[in-house]
Amino acid sequence: MLIVLSFLIPAVSAVHVFRMHDAEKRRSTVIWTMIASSVLAVLAGIFGEALTFLPLSDTLYLRFGTDGLSLFFVTLVSFIWCLVQFHAFGYMKHEGKEEQFFGFFLLTYAALVALAFAQNAVTLYMCFELMSLASMPLVLHNGTERSREAAFKYLGYSTLGACMALLGFFLLGAQGNDLSFTPGGAKLTGDPKVLLAAAFLIILGFGAKAGMVPLQMWLTEAHPVAPSPASAVLSGLITKAGVLSILRCAFQLFGRGMLQGTWVQTAVLTLSIVTIFTGSMLAQREKVLKKRLAYSSVSNVSYVIFGLFTFETFGVVGAFLQIVFHALAKDALFLCAGSVIFAAGCTKTDELRGIGRRMPVTMWCFAIASLSLIGIPPMGGFAAKYCLARGALAGGSTLGLVGLVVLMLSALLTAFYLLPIVAAAFFPGRDFEAGQPCEVPKTMLVPQLVFAGLTVLLGLFPNGLNAVFAILNGLVL
Amino acid sequence: MMLTLMVFLPIFAAVACYFLCRRSERAGQRLTLGVTVLIFAMALSLLRMPELTGGVGSFWGLCGVGVHFCAGGMRTVMAVLAGFMWLMTALASPEYFDGARLNPRYFMFYLWTLGALLGVFLAADLMTLFIFFEMMSFTSYVWVVQNETPQALRAGETYLFIAVIGGLTMLMGLFLLENAVGALSFENIVKKAPKMDTGLRYAVGVCALIGFGAKAGMFPLHIWLPKAHPVAPAPASALLSGILTKSGVFGIIGVTCWLFDGVEGWGLLLLVPAVITMFLGALLAVFSTDLKRTLACSSMSQIGFILTGVAMCNLLGGHGSIAACGATLHILNHSLIKLTLFVAAGVVYFNVHSLDLNEVRGFGRDQPLLKLAFLSGACSIAGIPGFGGYISKTLLHEGIVEYCEHLAEHGRSAAPFRAVEWIFLLSGGLTLAYMARLFYILFLAKKPAHQHRKPGRCMNGMTASVLVTGGILMPLLGLTPHATMDRIAQYALPFFRREPMAHAVHYFSLTNLKGALISVTIGALVFAFVGMKWLTRREDGVETYRSVWPRGLDLEDAVYRPLLRGLAFLGAVAARLVETVSALLVLSQVNFIFLGAKNEVVPPEDPEFSAYRTRSRRSRVERSFSADLLYAACGVLALFLLAAWNMAR
């Protein structure tokens, strides 16, 4: 029951928030809903009991339950969501239509939590679609022609991906399989060729959310037009929901034994490598800051998929580390980008010259998050990259080696597209007139500081995380 | 514990220093000085603590890989040297930075870099070394751009990118190595290296060489060095040139002596860029018309000398002690020399506000202290007998000669190494030539009439004490080689994995003096005919110093930047292609899904999506997309209720 409550409360509260026009009241409602449901979600992750709903047939039913993965994901999502909302309170004053934003903000959160607790393919699919629908208005928020196009692109890609995944589930279901998630694989029966094809379809489909080639285009359209807090959660967490779906299906439905060494593994690894390269390369050509960050997400989320599909302990642990540190760093970056838009109105990268003098704290957060994203020790990105690289090499395959080279190339490109921003922001030149300081209010600063601080702190001491991920690894491999 | 403290104390102090400096600059400078004194004292005490030698002090699971430190041998020598350099530059900094803007940030990164550098020198394994190496690259970047002139920003950009490229390449090498041998401690590498696949071993080596070589300023990755060192503030230049480049050399020594012990091919691979660096640096220095740029190019050349010694040490195998001692001592000497010379250049700069040789000429005619200190440094770097530089260069030279003899004994042709020997002597000659030219211009030439000059004394007591210390140490070391320098070298030898030298070298014997004599002769000739004739134009008794180096002949502008741009373009084309193909794949599908439904959902007359405040409550429910979602949510809710009822039954 805890589980159901943990996502029903924000959903119901969201409906309420749509109708609240009093800013103070709305704010306190959102804050308390978020805090209560976060606590509830984490408690549900620990103590929740499995529930089965709507048994339409003996293989078709909804099932919510919890395991280590759910707990991990719910904790991450709740934590980041709670912090981002504080930034959003400040930022959305500048965008307007706050009741709409916070309503869908809560609704998306509810869908994400439900997704994390989904314990079979049907439930997962349902939550996935709900999440796409609920988060789409976040992109649409501005209501301009461009944001409308971007939002429909986002919805279209998500739906297309989900349809592909659904097709995969049909293929499995047609063979009479029960699609519940079990650690190590659900002992699927049927023609191996069809099973593999289904696996590929599902991974490709959910890969749309994770920004994997060929369904990555929505990311770079949606992020620049969405309000910054929305971009932050889209990029940091909703892409990870795609990863979680892939993880559930590939490892807990098919299982490592069925996929390792097959063409599916090769294809997914290749696609993720291509994505890593494409994303970084295009980010480096991009001039609009948020679009650059979006391309960077395309590249960075595929690190996770690459790590998972090495099927090595190191790779999987690295993938989890990358989930955490990319979420923290990218959210910090988007929030900083948001603060810059909010306070100084700059959206292009070359307008950011000297901004470090005007908004020192924000740009320090930006710098730290950038270094983490590149993978410079002692920031968290290094710990993730270290494990990913070990995982890539451990199998001894050529593809692993290629992956390592592309990882390094991507890190280099990340340095190329992020460091000049930081350098120009802090070192604008001797006679540069920076203008008045215009640091954002404290409520907007704190989330950035927490995210940036955590990338350093957890980066310095990632062993606690590593221990957690070693346990999760048992659920995956 | 002590080693950990040595590394982390400056890092924490750096942050404190920043905030202190913002409140009171004087207090910040005092803190800086205090920390450097403390670190120098701790480094010295390492010499007296044999129990720390080889002992590993690890520090939790920092960065997920664990950080391990150990002291002893070369590590202690380098730590002491770093402490000394920082102490000296801390003494010289207050005057140089007096009244300048943005000092808090400089002092913060000044101390931070000290911690990072000590981390590099005291690292017990390569991963630790890498972590601090990266940190050092980023913190020292701030030094380069501190002045924020256009040149500084551009040099900083080059510096940062070379550092990042080098760092990531090295990291890749480390990953490959770790995958092959397991733990990256030096002992483990030595044990497992011979069993490694040769191709892999060289791949790792080349990756590491690129990383460390980039920092050391080795050809062809030297391009940042002659640009970045001159634009930094003088005390920072002294550190960049004198000791930061040595972290790269330190790493190369580690790779050479621990990973490639007894592999001759590696020695040859290292020797080629080392010799090119040695000669090219000297050549660039001769043609430079900027005081600090000359010194920076000279640093590059001297790094080439040191690396040549390292390569010879590898080639000579078990007999490499002489070359190893030469390399160690040249590291030491070069640091002292560059400390003195750059601080002297700093004195020139904050008096005249220029580094152009045409404007600073004759500055030191009436400055005896500056003149003597500079002379001492110049003599030492040129290898004049009686100064420290002579001792180390003799040892390096001896190393090459010994290898030639070794080859002759085994009936192999020594001709290429004879050539190396001559390039070595020639580079030594060029060193003398450009130092003599600098000395002539600064201290003997006539002052230009309009030379701007700060009123009052040209330097304060603290800066003078730095110059005196440096100026005295060099002849002191050079005159007592057996009592001082030999012992330092022997102390450092275990890091090279070489036995102590079998017999003491007679530094002042005729054969050894002969090498110096050849160099001095070449240098005098070059100085007289190139420096004074070709590069100097005399009109009406006024000398001008010409820059004849072709502007287009710049590796960075002519090759690297276009190459990088081209590669980035190609990569972007490939990436755009991937994007287009995937977009085409999807485009038709997306259009199919929506069937032009756009206009249905958002009425075209209402561009403000769901801006329904002006409408009636009724139309809000009917027409907005969010209402549709609400219906969906209600449906789901109903399903849940149904299910709950189902279960209750």
List keywords for this structure.
heterodimer; A: about 475 residues; mainly alpha; two-stranded antiparallel sheet; 2 strands; B: about 650 residues; two-stranded antiparallel ribbon; globular
3D structure, described in words:
The complex is a heterodimer of chains A (477) and B (649). Chain A is mostly helical and 477 residues long. Chain A has a domain at 261-477. Chain A is 78% helix and 1% strand. Chain A is built from 19 helices and two strands. Chain A has a two-stranded antiparallel ribbon. Chain B has 649 residues and is mainly α. Among the domains of chain B are: 324-547, no CATH class; 550-594; 596-649, no CATH class. Chain B has 24 helices and four strands. In chain B, the strands form two sheets. Chain B has a two-stranded antiparallel ribbon. Chain B has a two-stranded antiparallel ribbon with strand order 3-4. Chain B is globular. The termini of chain B are far apart. Chains A and B meet through α1, α4, α5, α6 and α11 of A and α5, α6, α21 and α24 of B.
